[in-house]
Each structure stands twice: as C-alpha cells, then as structure tokens.
Specification:
Strand content: 15-25%
CATH topology: Rossmann fold
Number of strands: 6
Order of helices and strands: EHEHEHHEHEEHH
CATH architecture: 3-Layer(aba) Sandwich
Number of helices: 7
Oligomer: single chain
Distance between the termini: 45 Å
Radius of gyration: 16 Å
Length: about 180
C-alpha cells in the first residue's frame, strides 16, 4: 500500500485545498490519502482558526470518502510538529510500501531547513503542487509535480475572508467559526 500525507494549516480550508485533495484522491498510485491539519505550523507563531475547528471542518468536508483520512495526529500533540514526526508515525502505523509527502511549490526554497530534512528525504517521495508565481525547480530533491495553478492562499484569506473561495459545503461552518474567532479579538 502507498500512502500520501498532505499536511497544512488549512487556516482556513479553501477551494485550492479542496481541488488539491480531490485531485490527489484520484491518483491511482496513492491508495490512502492522509490529510493532517497542523496544531501550529512550525514556521508560524499563531493560528487563526482553532485547530479543533479546522479538524472538524475537514472531517465535515471529507467524511464520505473512505480513501481520505482526516487525521488529528498533530492536533492531539498540541504543539508544532515537524513533518518527520508525522511521517514516522504513519510509517509505523500503516507500514506502507511507499510514502508520498505533498508540499506546495512555495515550500521548495526552504525545504532544506525542515527538521531532519535528510532523514525525511530518505523516507518519502515528494509531490509538489505547483502554484502561480513559484518556480518548480530544485537541486535538492527529486519530485513529482501536480499542476494546479490556483491563485489563492490561506494567508490572503486571513486578511479578508472572501466566502467565494471557501468550498460551498463548508461556507456556513467556516463563516460561523470565523465570526466567533473575530469576536474574541
């Protein structure tokens, strides 16, 4: 069995994430797609939507697809979790033949800075999701590419939530949570 791990903040989950997940779920060499929302991205200082809410939004979005697992592994750790820890966890749990790690092309330039990068690079095959404005080349790793070119990011949505970029199935849920979080500020 081959597994693919797609981690991220999903803060908030947007149509770009939805398209990536849907495309990954259709790739025949991926037998189980594991979507792992972070508790806190190792390169960030805070989150905007509480991790438990992001987990519930993802579960609500993908609860009917048995080939997609939404994992709370990193959220339950309640700390920033390097990718190597997550990969080793799922390697032990599933004992897959191959592990694919999904990253955005914006991560390529700093990939060598990731915790235990050399060990991670030996454990996984990277799949890079191409995004407008980022060059998809790298001398450090070999990787497969998925062409998406969706010009949306969670960080731009955090500045101003534009509901048209949120998947229809979860628009109300995200709006309710977003408004609740804004009231806390």
């Amino acid at each position: 069995m081959n597994i693919a791990i797609f981690g991220g903040s999903f803060d908030p989950l947007h149509i770009g994430h939805e398209r990536i997940i849907n495309k990954l779920a259709r790739i025949t060499y991926i037998h189980k797609l594991i979507v792992v929302p972070t508790y806190l991205n190792p390169f960030k200082k805070k989150y905007h939507i509480h991790p438990a809410d992001r987990f519930e939004i993802l579960k609500h979005m993908y609860n009917i697809n048995p080939d997609i697992l939404i994992s709370d592994f990193e959220i339950l750790r309640e700390e920033s979790t390097p990718s190597i820890v997550t990969v080793e966890h799922f390697k032990e749990l599933y004992k897959p033949k191959k592990i694919f790690l999904i990253i955005g092309s914006d991560n390529l330039k700093n990939l060598h800075l990731w915790n235990e990068f050399d060990k991670l690079n030996n454990l996984v095959e990277f799949i890079v999701v191409n995004r407008d404005g980022y060059e998809v080349k790298n001398d450090i790793i070999q990787f497969k590419t998925i062409q998406m070119n969706i010009n949306i990011s969670s960080s731009s949505l955090r500045d101003k939530l534009d509901i048209k970029y949120i998947p229809k199935k979860i628009q109300k849920k995200v709006t309710d949570i977003w408004n609740k979080e804004l009231k806390k500020l």
